[in-house]
Specification:
single chain, two-stranded antiparallel ribbon, 4 strands
Length: 468
């Protein structure tokens, strides 16, 4: 006979899978944008791009990453105080849908304008880089750049409402133990990466075959699917947002006094600082390593050529292979890392990051001017993925467990804000790659990760005293 606690946990995981299905489609839209944005901004105007240089494109990418991660703090606070998670999810999804469709407009402007003005010469369109102050440009330039910024703003605002609330709802599900809770968030993270895999493979193919406009339109259809699933699972969303179950390893409710600010502010602050440092390295994948794949890596395997962006699919592929068996072990409180503290998992994660960028630095040193094999970059991304699995889900799980129930969306927003700050810094680092070279960037990142790993191991007992 199944116990009541076991039954609640089974129901929690059943709800988790349905909520994760929504996230698959939302993340497909997100990763389509984030994977193709730098490429679209740096592509020649004649190929449907904006013709920006790498530094300008990576600067815009870093700013968008920051907005996508920092704004959820305001979105989470607004949800906790006024909207509620279910309504905030719907509003966020609608805003993102409008944003992705708006992003398709810049790629339609040259085609439409050529029909209006027979003398319009697309080959000279946007030949000069357009800055944020684009009011002095021609009318088609204003339409193109204006719709770009409008679309990005709508996506960022929608993400601010959607992202923290779906994490907060999952945080309220009645997982029986800390290990089961980490397993649940790891599975949720796996579905996030599954959406990313579809986005990279499908988006890269659509962009190379039909252009960036159709690829961004495809992102809009991803949000249509997410909205349809939200309507199907509205009962689950409404019921989950009305519960607030916090479980200890023994399965009993946590003392409310343990969730007063005096008890949770310090550990949450420590987690957020670690997440910032983690984000600096993690977001190199879609920024610096995206450009690295396009410029320094041989995008072929066994004589078959493929779009360079496909190499980034190593991230979700590894996640899909590793997470299911690992989550099963963690849920049963066995296997590697099942009983490890958050500080130890984070130290191991930064160790894998150091290994990944050491591999890339060595490849740059050995190949000199020759191209780097695709498998080298894929292996490095695999190590980064393992680090992401060790740090990201466990940190989000810990934050949503530590904070009070009525601060759940705000806490999730702070987690993504910390990642966003790291993403912004990653854009600044990536922008310098053209000046100092990829090898120098890889060496610096690897050295910093080694130092962080050593520091976390040195102070692991201090972290254990505050529950980390």
């Amino acid at each position: 006979m199944v116990s009541a606690s076991a039954g609640r946990e089974e129901a929690a995981f059943a709800a988790l899978y349905r909520l994760s299905a929504i996230e698959v489609w939302e993340r497909l839209s997100y990763y389509l944008l984030m994977t193709l944005l730098v490429l679209a901004l740096t592509a020649p105007v004649a190929d449907g791009g904006f013709g920006w240089n790498s530094a300008a494109a990576l600067g815009a990418y870093g700013g968008l990453v920051a907005a996508m991660q920092v704004l959820p703090v305001a979105g989470g606070a607004l949800s906790d105080r006024l909207l509620g998670p279910a309504r905030a999810l719907r509003m966020g999804a609608l805003l993102m849908l409008l944003g992705h469709l708006t992003l398709a407009i810049p790629h339609m402007v040259p085609i439409m304008w050529a029909r209006i003005d027979p003398d319009f010469d697309r080959s000279h369109f946007l030949t000069a880089q357009i800055s944020l102050q684009f009011r002095d440009g021609s009318t088609p330039e204003q339409l193109m750049v204006g719709s770009l910024y409008t679309g990005l703003a709508l996506v960022a605002l929608g993400n601010a409402l959607f992202k923290p609330n779906i994490s907060a709802i999952i945080g309220r599900l009645p997982f029986g133990t800390y290990a089961a809770r980490d397993a649940g968030f790891s599975l949720f993270h796996m579905f996030v990466n599954f959406g990313g895999l579809i986005a990279i493979l499908l988006g890269g193919w659509v962009a190379s075959r039909f252009g960036y406009g159709p690829a961004f339109t495809l992102a809009g259809f991803g949000m249509v699917a997410a909205l349809a699933l939200m309507h199907m699972f509205r009962t689950i969303i409404s019921s989950a947002e009305g519960t607030a179950v916090y479980s200890t390893p023994a399965g009993t409710a946590t003392d409310p006094e343990a969730r007063t600010p005096a008890k949770w502010v310090l550990p949450v602050s420590v987690i957020l600082m670690a997440v910032v440092l983690f984000g600096v390295t993690l977001f190199q994948v879609l920024g610096t390593l995206n450009l690295y794949a396009a410029s320094r890596v041989e995008a072929s395997l066994w004589g078959v050529d493929f779009p360079p962006v496909w190499i980034l699919s190593a991230n979700p592929i590894v996640m899909l292979l590793v997470v299911p068996p690992l989550a099963k072990c963690w849920r049963e409180e066995r296997g590697p890392g099942a009983k490890a503290t958050l500080s130890c998992k984070t130290a191991a994660g930064f160790g894998f990051l150091a290994l990944a960028f050491s591999v890339l630095a060595a490849a740059e040193f050995l190949t000199k001017q020759a191209v780097v094999p695709a498998l080298i970059l894929a292996a490095a991304i695999a190590f980064i993925t393992i680090a992401e699995l060790l740090v990201g889900p466990s940190a989000l799980s810990a934050i949503t467990r530590i904070v009070p129930a009525n601060r759940g969306a705000l806490a999730a927003g702070m987690f993504y804000a910390a990642l966003g700050l790291g993403g912004f810094l990653s854009g600044l680092i990536g922008a310098s790659a053209q000046e100092v070279g990829f090898q120098t960037i890889f060496n610096v990142i690897a050295g910093c990760c080694v130092a962080i790993t050593a520091g976390l191991l040195l102070f692991r007992r201090t972290a254990a005293r505050i529950g980390l």
